[in-house]
Amino acid sequence: MAVFVRALPALAWAVLLFLVSHQPTLPSLAASFWDKFLHFGAYAVLGFLLVPALTKSAASTTISRGILAFCLGSAYGASDEFHQAFVPGRSSDVGDWVADTLGAAFGVLTAMLFFRFYRAYLDRAYSRRR
Q1: Which residues contact 84 (CB under 8 A, 6 or more apart)?
Q2: How far apart are CA 72 and CA 119, in angstroms?
Q3: What is the largest CA-CA distance in the chain?
Q4: Is 31 helix (H, G, I), strand (E, B) or coil?
Q5: Could you tell me if 23 and 83 are in contact, meaning their C-beta atoms sit under 8 angstroms apart?
Q6: In terms of Cα–Cα distance, which of 107, 98, 125, 124 is closest to 54?
Q7: Whose CA is closest to 11, among 48, 41, 43, 46?
Q8: CA torsion angle 81 39 96 13 (round to 10)
Q9: pLDDT tens by residue, the chain, 130 residues
Q10: Whole-number pLDDT of residue 79
Q11: Interatomic CA distance for residues 92 and 100, integer angstroms
Q12: What gap in Å lies between CA 39 and CA 2, rounded to an integer?
């Protein structure tokens, strides 16, 4: 049950991304220059959420889990672009997938740093109690 609870935010975000990408048309902002930034940001959030979903605690955040989170984020971006090829009014774009992948990498790196500093903070706080 704890695994599902840790994975729930990442799963919810992935579902939201799927629902948005399934829309035949998006507001004009998404079709402009900002499109790649929107992809980057959306997948940065996914990458950040995947790290705790794949670890048992902040103490178990490892490089291999970060690589797995990155690979999952990039693969989900690729599957999203493939899915958009079948949505009327949408198209698949390799540039969008690159933005998704870079965003996932940024999110994973941010999460890894966050959990590293969080773990150090907890270690210091715990050692002060003794």
Answers
A1: 21, 90, 91, 92
A2: 24
A3: 62
A4: helix
A5: no
A6: 107
A7: 46
A8: -20
A9: 677 888 999 999 999 999 998 888 766 655 566 888 999 999 999 999 999 999 876 556 788 899 999 999 999 999 999 999 999 888 888 999 999 999 999 999 999 999 888 878 877 777 766 6
A10: 96
A11: 13
A12: 30
Look up the pTM and report it.
Answer: 0.86
Cβ proximity of 115 and 58 under 8 Å: yes
Does residue 91 sit in helix, strand or coil?
coil
Tokens 């929107």 sit at which residue? 38
Q: Tokens 């693969």 label which residue?
A: 75
Type and span of the H or E element at 5:
helix 2-21
Residue 8, token pair as written in the block: 């729930």
DSSP assignment letter at 1? -
Residue type (1 letter), 31: A
Q: Which residue has the tokens 């490892």?
A: 62
Q: How many residues does the chain have?
A: 130
